[in-house]
Amino acid sequence: MKRDSRLSGVLHILLHMADAGEPRTSEQLAKAMRTNPVVVRRLLGGLRDAGLVHSEKGHGGGWTVARNLAAISLADIYRAIGRPALIAMGNRDDAPDCLVEQAVNAALEASFREAEALLLARFERVTLAALADDFHARLAALPTACKDPVHG
């Protein structure tokens, strides 16, 4: 099963935007992500609708983070990208009348719900500011010749 990397990609884009300190075009962000500008625009559309990013058209325009990084949690971003599935595993439903399948599914479903609740609680506690701080600490630890924040 293919992994859904939208959350990771959006976080990557947001940190590049925040670090730039000025509007970034979809083309600039796509270069940093090594992807297509259309992918960037698609990812940021939901964030704009949620009030997390802002876009300006025209010369000097581009994307900016719309709120303080400390006020944006991973959970906010997760919700803005449409709440993709957090766990790729699921239950069998080939024999719904089978008591063994029912017992297995009940145990797994409870475990899946518990794991998702823990993950979402963690997402609520992690902010973009914390990720930006981690990035800057990693950058500061590099030898000067290696510092390329665009391509890490």
Automatic annotation (TrEMBL):
A GO MF term: DNA-binding transcription factor activity
Top-level taxon of origin: Bacteria
InterPro entries, per database record: Tscrpt_reg_Rrf2, WH-like_DNA-bd_sf, WH_DNA-bd_sf
GO cellular component: cytosol
Gene3D superfamilies associated with the record: Winged helix-like DNA-binding domain superfamily/Winged helix DNA-binding domain
Protein name per its UniProtKB record: Transcriptional regulator, BadM/Rrf2 family
Gene: ywnA
